[in-house]
Design brief:
Layout lengths: L3 H33 L3 H27 L10 H17 L7 H28 L8 H36 L4 H26 L12 H9 L2 H32 L4 E3 L5 E3 L2 H26 L1 H19 L6 H40 L4 H29 L13 H11 L1 H14 L6 H15 L9 H10 L1
Antiparallel strand pairs: 1-2
């Protein structure tokens, strides 16, 4: 049984990753088009190309991590080795050089690809650790919940403080808009470095898995893994839901809500209603959802919870479409953001825990101890969702006549309508697709419990490397 310190330490890792990832997902498209100076078309292609490379590199990193041998384990040492490059690359990503347009475009490609490569180098091994910190399926859900609770906590800190940090460096310290974004990232990057080092120091690997096949056999077993394919599809849709909606928020507030929107707060006066507040409140609500994930999954099962949450997201997203742009409507928007974020918070630990179940399934059915490769697929789905979502937002805005130099009422009606669709109806359709795909996922609670029991029996004999014919036959009958 693992202790609280290890769970908290594991949570610190995704707290660090999420601080970067949420800033990248929600503010980087806006940074490239409105601060860095790229056109919407070039920014969209940049996001798509770099994120696709990032996704493709994930399985490569998973294979490397699976075959790493150190005194610290297979996956944990990468937290130590990659922490400093991770932070440095984040700062370079938000640096605006005094180059020509072509030179800046090259700089953007180089720094973004470098950042995503380093992100893969630390995040894939970190995710794979969930498969080796414990062999208990319930404990994996608990670990995953700690992970996502701290992840959303880090996201809240990064998103809530991002715009105030930029304003501080620009208005108080006299920095240019471009430099203020860079300095804000320096603050975030320093915190991320400390968190990853703490994660390394406070965790350990307890389950020993040894790959017995070649890289080719690992890939063949992965491609034959039906639960993996279904979970990849459902997870990609879930990440597409988050990315499309999240990447739209900065534009939605700049061009629909406006810079001078206020929430009436009775005798306490008014509160500025800005994108950082909207996103930051959502991260707090995500943390509430994470706390609900374990009891809901325990009562309804992971699969049923996954499907039910997505159906609720469909309803809430459609309802958001009819909210008025008024002071009273701002409160309703914030209320719906809380509700949507609670349910997306439930989803996040479920996905990671379900990947751990898929890893156990692969080990038993295919005798393939390829935890890193399995978990890298989850990161791959996340990044493909981010690539498609981030690029789609920019392409759709460009197709609808969005003007980067204009704000508010100066935008054409087609662009304003597009922003509303990107915040509501499009994410609703994606959530519906996630629920449909997940309905075919075969690893129910009973199946997973049987897999865990058989794996424990197998692991007792360290010399046993392949399942017996009877074991394979019995397991095939389960599915």
């Amino acid at each position: 049984m693992t202790n609280l310190k290890e769970k908290i330490g594991y949570g610190f890792g995704d707290m660090s990753s999420s601080m970067f990832w949420k800033v990248f997902s929600y503010y980087l498209p806006f940074f490239y088009s409105n601060i860095f100076g790229l056109s919407l078309v070039d920014a969209a292609l940049l996001v798509l190309v770099t994120r696709i490379w990032d996704a493709i590199s994930d399985p490569m990193m998973g294979i490397v991590a699976d075959r790493t041998r150190t005194r610290w384990g297979k996956y944990r040492p990468y937290l130590l080795w990659m922490a400093a490059p991770f932070s440095i690359c984040g700062i370079l990503l938000f640096t605006t050089p005094d180059f020509s347009y072509a030179g800046k475009l090259v700089w953007a490609y180089v720094t973004y690809i470098l950042m995503m490569t380093v992100y893969t180098g630390i995040n894939v091994p970190y995710g794979a650790m969930l498969g080796v910190v414990t062999d208990s399926t319930r404990e994996k859900t608990v670990y995953s919940s700690f992970r996502m609770f701290f992840a959303y906590g880090g996201s809240f800190i990064a998103l809530f403080s991002w715009e105030p940090l930029c304003r501080f460096f620009q208005n108080t310290m006299g920095a240019s808009p471009a430099s203020s974004w860079q300095f804000a990232m320096c603050v975030i990057a320093a915190a991320c470095l400390v968190l990853f080092l703490c994660c390394f120091a406070m965790t350990r690997e307890t389950v020993q898995t040894v790959p017995t096949g070649s890289v080719g056999s690992d890939f063949r077993s992965l491609l034959s893994n039906r639960p993996w394919w279904l979970l990849i599809g459902a997870a990609l849709c879930f990440n597409l839901f988050n990315t499309v909606r999240g990447a739209t928020v900065a534009y939605f507030f700049a061009d629909i809500i406006g810079p001078d929107a206020w929430l009436p707060f009775g005798p306490f006066g008014n509160i500025l209603f800005y994108s950082g507040l909207f996103l930051g409140i959502g991260e707090i609500a995500n943390m509430i959802g994470v706390a609900l994930a374990v009891p809901l999954a325990g009562h309804f099962g992971k699969k049923n919870t996954f499907i039910g949450v997505n159906l609720v997201l469909v309803v809430l997203s459609i309802a958001f479409f009819i909210l008025p742009v008024t002071p009273a409507g701002y409160w309703l928007m914030l209320l719906f953001q809380v509700a949507i974020s609670v349910f997306t918070g439930i989803m996040s630990p479920l996905v990671w825990s379900m990947y751990a179940d898929v890893s156990d399934y692969a080990e038993l059915k295919f005798n393939s101890a390829s935890t890193g490769l399995i978990f890298s697929s989850s990161s791959m789905a996340q990044k493909f969702g981010g690539a498609l979502g981030g690029a789609a937002v920019l392409w759709l805005l460009n197709a609808c006549g969005y003007d980067e130099a204009a704000t508010g009422m100066a935008q054409p009606d087609s662009a304003i309508g597009c922003l509303w669709y990107l915040m509501t109806l499009i994410p609703a359709g994606v959530a519906a697709a996630a629920a449909i795909i997940a309905s075919f996922y075969p690893l129910t609670t009973g199946t997973v419990n049987e897999i865990v029991t058989k794996l424990r029996q197998r692991r007792k004999n360290i010399n046993e490397s392949t399942p017996t014919e009877d074991e394979a036959t019995d397991f095939a009958n389960v599915l």
